[in-house]
Specification:
The structure holds two protein chains of two kinds.
Chain A lengths: L2 E5 L2 E3 L5 E8 L8 E6 L5 E7 L6 E3 L7 E6 L4 E6 L8 E8 L8 E4 L3 E5 L2
Parallel strand pairs in A: 2-11
Antiparallel strand pairs in A: 1-3, 3-8, 4-5, 4-9, 5-6, 7-8, 9-10, 9-11
Chain B lengths: L3 E4 L2 E4 L5 E7 L7 E6 L6 E5 L3 E2 L7 E6 L2 E6 L9 E6 L7 E2 L3 E5 L1
Parallel strand pairs in B: 2-11
Antiparallel strand pairs in B: 1-3, 3-8, 4-5, 4-9, 5-6, 7-8, 9-10, 9-11
The chains are: A mainly beta, B mainly beta.
Chain lengths: 121, 108
Amino acid sequence: EVQLVESGGGLVQPGGSLRLSCAASGFTFSSYEMNWVRQAPGKGLEWVSYISSSGSTIYYADSVKGRFTISRDNAKNSLYLQMNSLRAEDTAVYYCARGSSGRRRCYFDYWGQGTLVTVSS
Amino acid sequence: DIQMTQSPSSVSASVGDRVTITCRASQGISSWLAWYQQKPGKAPKLLIYAASSLQSGVPSRFSGSGSGTDFTLTISSLQPEDFATYYCQQANSFPTITFGQGTRLEIK
């Protein structure tokens, strides 16, 4: 069974940092592209970042570029999101999401349960 | 950036009704479109990909159509478990994808 379990969320002050983790199981993690997607309270979904299966290709939404860093450790079946210079508008539930296989890799077929990040003083 | 606009923002319907939700892209995206269902406090679930392909395990009462800029998600006969929020997602500019703002499907 495919499982994605996020952790690392919490309350942080504006300007602070946080590192999110996503532990993957039930599939060959190193073969899949991964993403972070967030959802502000009561709002819609916003794609945040993408990383290729090897980690060699990375993309960010403009809203987080220069502040967030995505990475992965295929030996540990884990995905990460380092978030620096956090702002109030970064408050959201953060989901890790797996890209489906082959030509469907641009669609997200499995999602974690999400971890809440709250940026407030 | 490609903008995705869903309509309506919310809709009320009864069990057994046929419901259609529309998604419009700000520029042509061929068939690079997916639909997701999200229930309160839960992660989104992939329903439809490539505009009209049903994801494995999704009931056949869900269907998708369209190409270019205009797309629809249809639920042929609403079931109690279908009341949720639905999002479209464009994948034409993958990996920088965008979602629609969501359509909340409520019980009448």
